[in-house]
Design brief:
Blueprint: H1 3-10, H2 16-21, H3 25-28, H4 38-58, H5 69-80, H6 88-105, E1 112-120, E2 129-138, E3 141-147, H7 161-174, E4 182-188, E5 197-202, H8 203-221, H9 231-235, H10 244-255, H11 267-296, H12 318-327, H13 332-335, H14 343-350, H15 352-359, H16 388-392
Helix pairs in contact: 4-5, 4-6, 7-8, 10-11, 14-15
This protein binds iron/sulfur cluster.
Iron/sulfur cluster binds at residues 18, 22, 25, 28, 227, 229, 233-234, 237, 239-240, 243, 245-246.
Length: 397
């Protein structure tokens, strides 16, 4: 691998959250294979569909990147044959294009729109580059939009380093032509929310992030700086199972000497232990995964071994089995149950619009069970404590 590819592989924009928080992680990670998950391949496919639909929506014949309708249909049909393709991708990729349309209308004049644009990030990150899904620029405003197909974790736009690096690259590309003063970042994650994540900031704030990123990248590429274990940066780090800094911190959190303290812990400590305990729990899970892999590979992890888990029975040929049971006199009513689909499953089969028209009036939303989440969660806090009106309402004084 030449230096350029190496530096980019080490300091990718998508991994920037990690190497900005924990600079030496960038070099440490290189010892571990970079595996691509099925979810990531699915995301790539959805991105390809998004790109073609966006080209059709925003480009006309005179634009570079324009795709004639028959070419677009042919390309889309090819993608639809991919084994990872699902029908629901159509709706989600349409949502992406609709949101871009909404964002374009928010400009005071028709913006210039660039799709799938390669960006030079080398002013901030050695050999850095990235590809932005969509950039819009017009007047004093620059917008960078990113499509996320994942449905595990909702990605926030505010303070998002990957988006800020892309915005820096876009600013570098277009600031010769436009007097950019305001930056907008938009993350469209339609499988998790109908509303996009949006963050607006002045260009000065973006450039000051650029300075910070430059300093951290210079440390990271040399494998220097302090290890900084933490839930978010360790979560996807390839070194997470064996990283000593993370192990030391979690051992300290779980078994550390706490000295002489009052017999009951305070509510402040409850909050602190819950938060820190989340990383201890995920670290233990990572250790278990590593140890299982090591045992299966013939290594010895003292005190542990790999065994076969509890198996389960399954049909070799269910149709033939049911036929045989029926021939043996078992009535069909005993073998089948007829039950309604769940609301969500039925909506998916019928389609959102038709479903709402036909059955919308019979749907009500029950409040969910109270759940404990971290304060950064965007849902409003709830409480069982009655308000003053509830407590005193109706009482005559
Ligand atoms: S596991 Fe965490 S502490 Fe260790 S290198 Fe990775 S990000 Fe840094």
């Amino acid at each position: 691998m030449d230096h350029g590819s190496r530096a980019h592989a080490i300091l990718s924009a998508s991994g920037s959250h990690r190497w900005l928080s924990c600079p030496p992680s960038a070099v440490l990670e290189t010892q571990f294979p970079d595996t691509t998950s099925e979810a990531a391949r699915e995301g790539t496919l959805a991105h390809e569909i998004c790109e073609i639909k966006a080209r059709q929506k925003f480009y006309t014949k005179s634009d570079m990147g324009y795709m004639a309708k028959n070419v677009a249909t042919r390309e889309l049909n090819k993608l639809r044959k991919d084994p990872l393709y699902q029908d629901e991708m159509e709706g989600y990729t349409d949502d992406y294009v609709s949101e871009l349309d909404v964002q374009a209308l928010g400009f005071t004049e028709k913006p210039y729109i660039a799709l799938e644009t390669r960006l030079d990030l080398t002013d901030w990150v050695p050999e850095g580059f990235g590809t932005a899904d969509c950039i819009m620029v017009g007047g004093e405003k620059l917008l960078v939009a990113d499509f996320k197909y994942g449905k595990g974790v909702r990605v926030s736009a505010e303070g998002n380093p990957q988006m800020q690096l892309y915005a820096l690259g876009a600013w570098k590309k277009f600031s010769f032509l436009y007097n950019i003063r305001r930056i907008r970042m938009v993350i469209i994650q339609p499988r998790l929310s109908v509303n996009p994540e949006i963050w607006d900031l002045p260009v000065e704030e973006l450039l000051s992030f650029g300075q910070y990123a430059k300093e951290r990248a210079a440390l990271a590429i040399e494998g220097k700086g302090d290890y900084n274990p933490g839930e978010e940066q360790c979560q996807f780090c390839r070194a997470r199972q064996q990283c000593r800094a993370r192990a030391d911190q979690n051992v300290m959190l779980a078994f550390g000497d706490i000295g002489k303290l009052p017999p009951l812990i305070t509510d402040e400590e409850v909050g602190e232990y819950l938060r820190k305990g989340e990383d201890v729990a995920s670290w233990l899970k990572d250790l278990q995964e590593y140890a299982l892999g090591a045992c299966l590979a013939g290594k010895h992890i003292p005190g542990y071994k790999a065994v076969e888990g509890r198996g389960s029975r399954e049909w070799t040929d269910m149709d033939a089995a049911f036929e045989a049971l029926q021939k043996a006199g078992i009535p069909a009513e005993m073998m089948y149950e007829r039950k309604p689909l769940t609301l969500a499953a039925l909506e998916k089969v019928v389609g959102k619009k038709d479903f709402a028209e036909a059955a919308g009036e019979f749907i009500t939303k029950k409040p969910g069970k109270p759940a404990l989440v971290q304060e950064k969660d965007k849902r409003p806090a709830i409480t069982n404590v009655p308000t003053v009106e509830e407590a005193f309402g109706g009482v005559e004084t």
